[in-house]
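Appendix C reproduces, verbatim, an entry submitted by the partner laboratory led by Prof. M.T., so that reviewers can inspect both the input and the predicted structure.
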Amino acid sequence: MKKSNIYISLFSLSGILILTIIISSFTKSKKDEKFPLNTSISNLIFEGQRTVSEKTKEFWFDGKAELSSYKLTQARYGETHQGTAVLVYVTEPFSKKANTKADHNNPNNVSVLKLNKTLKFNTGIYPYSMMTSTFFPLEKENTSLKITSSLQEWCGMTHLEMKNETDFIFDFSSYYEGFTFKNKVIKKTILEDDLWTLMRLNPELLPIGKHDIIPSMSFLRLRNREPKAYKAIITLQNDDKGTSHYTMNYPELERELTIHYTSIFPYAILGWEDTHYSGYGDEKKLLTSKAELLKTIKTDYWNQNHNKDKHWRKKLEL
């Protein structure tokens, strides 16, 4: 074989090899694009480098709380029930030492944006009342210092609490025999309950792609699922009406949660849909719980506790 032919053959093989690498890289890129892994939030959870803008601080440190009411349709016992939901966001100092709201000035106190999320609905003759409180640092740390969740209905009540230590420590009290546990250790990962506040402070840091997430405490209680991390696929879509749609899909739980919020500051939560199985046995059905925003007000509600202050509830359509 002539030397020139050898060069041509080698050139052809090199071209084929380069083309193969390009195609492979493109295919991998498209595959990763479908389920991108956003590692920024995972890293920030442990590095504690998050900050918020001065505009954000001015909005939340105005001496008032933000109260938003929602028309609620809640799935329970294989049916949907009408009710109301309220999201209460308010800043306050948190004492890590006492693991409670701080009542005294201390340089070690942490400023948190607390969220109290309440759900109220009736199932037949008896009422349900659920509340979850998250104490999410305004800056730096990216995991709530504490989360508590309670459920009350005429059969009894339950209480689930997460303490943020070296790992997450979960305690659960229940009126059912055999369900109570203490000091359940779970390795730190993303908490679904935290994303409702991260969305209000730093929506650009919301995790996208495939992640291990501990579902909301209210969902865990309603479905009686074990507190632990579950695989989730997360997507974010922005429409031309200025609304962002943040979706978490949990294949193992057969559950999909979508939170709708405004794409511009202050990133108000407009509502949500939570689709999963409800009921037991023959009554088990795939149903969607949803909430639609009614009203939002800002007020120092802790001072509005007299009969003359009931007009605030009318403003919230509660």
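The radius of gyration is 24 Å. Additional entries are available on request from the coordinating office.
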